[in-house]
Amino acid sequence: MEKNTAPASEKSRTLLAWLWRSYLSKHIGLLVLAVIFMAAEGSMLGALSYMMRPMFDDVFVAGNAGALWWVGLAILGVFLVRGGASIAQKACLAVISQKTAADLRTDLLDHLMTLDGTFHQTHPPGFLIQRVQADVGAVNEVWTAIITGAGRDLIALFILMGVAIGVDWQWTLIALVGFPLMVLPSTLVQKFVRRRSREARDLGARLATRLDEVFHGIVPVKLNRLESYQSQRYRSLTGDLVSAEIRARLGAAAIPGLIDVMAGVGFLGVLIFGGAEIIAGEKTVGQFMSFFTAIGFAFEPLRRLGALSGVWQNAAAAVERLKELMDTEPTLVSPAKPATPPKGVPDVRLEGVNLFYGDTQVLNGLTFTAEAGKTTALVGASGAGKSTVFNLLTRLVDPQAGTISVGQVPVTELSLESLRDLFSTVSQDAALFDETLRENILLGRKDIPFDRLETVLKAAHVADFVPKLAEGLDTPVGPRGSALSGGQRQRVAIARALLRDTPILLLDEATSALDAQSEQVVQEALDKLAKGRTTLVIAHRLSTVREADKIVVMDRGRVVDEGTHEELLARGGHYAQLHAIQFRADGPTADRLALEKLGQHPENSAEGAEGSGRPGVSSRLSGIWRRLFSR
After folding, report:
1. What 3-state class would DSSP assign to 66?
2. Alpha helices in 394-432 (DSSP H)
3. Which CATH class is domain 348-587?
4. The whole model's pTM is what?
């Protein structure tokens, strides 16, 4: 992202223009109404200061009893109008500020969800939560401050200055003599506040990230006794945030303080110069009181307008961050004219696919085909690129070279929506939301009849444990599904996939973290799910993919062998080595035991089976393998 090096004043104008164009302009009618009420409220200060002259000269000094009533009623009217206008403008501003903040939060979330996986890898959840919640909250505060400053305080200031000039323009110049002296200090203070506010926003994002990691990782925190360590890290960041916030607040408070100093100097000058004129009989007490009230009232909106500068500098840091995020464009987008998705159950092909993450090559000329309606397993050591294949198929990432197609249609020619509608995924870590069990299965769909839901629950073996839950399907599953066991979470993920009813199924270590009993139940549900679908399976445990129609062996981002379980073992290549290493750790392999029972040694198994002349040996071996490995 390019860094904006424009001057601060130009940045402010750009940010304000963006806020107006994108959000405030939608409420122009209500905004105009609010400004009218603000103008009425602000002008009443001028009317009140003007009434000081007849009140003192005609009533108090001249003793005109007849003027007492009309002056008193006029002042009462001023306060009535001011009170009513104040309530009305605040109601209008409340509607505007809340609706614009809600729109901004929703738009920001919508936009963030369109950004690619690489963006979310470099921007942790805590950082984004801070942007959506805290930064939008800061912007929400400035709506009211800016609109009120422009509507009420600015109008009040002009009217009050008009009253003061009407009484005596020389007194007014003397009262404002200190104003030019505060321009340079105010400019320096504004820059200071902007820097400190940005620093505070960054620290706030880091704090939110730290909290997110602690709460999501509370189990490893406890097991590794990291409470003190995490607390100390949080305490250190909090200390930095407090320091930055205090400096920003002190800087923001300096501008109204400078105005107070200016006001004191001005009042001293007016009192000395004007007091002499009153003593000499050149001016009346009523004129002085009218001027004094107007200037006194004027300094209060002037202080608020000065403070508004600090408020804006604080909010500008948040607005700048929000605009940067909103201007970030996704790199993975749908084509302008998307192709028609394939019909029926398609095959999946990867041809010469190369993928780099930075300088690291993850896939190197990867080529294989997953036949339509069959199960293809991807095996290999960690880091071979198996999970990357799933990300490529669903376009969570695009390769630098090569072609990926589904049913002869390149995935880049399909819209992202129609492409992802072809896939269902069940992974080792089933992602559940802190909602009810029903919501986690339906995922917002309202068109599922109960009989179909019931069928899916039975097929996925979710119906086996629902009666044991306190509220059945309406039981909350807890944060990330923590109220359910691993096997139960997997069955919920399978129920989701059954409801989606897509032609392609992606299984990523779906049973590797389960105990034997749960694995058996989940495997039965997966078998039902895979029927009639093109299925790709990622597995580290080779025993789980023995029955696959084809096994693709990957190493360092390329295919080194492919075939059935028996074919790969017989060839004695990379797959056989993985098999031997894996099952040596668990004791004698099932294949070795099976061959020894037949009186053969594993190293001569292919020859012995062919040279024995006994029909059915290979089928007997296959049956033994299946029975042993399906346990």
Report:
1. helix
2. 416-420
3. alpha beta
4. 0.69
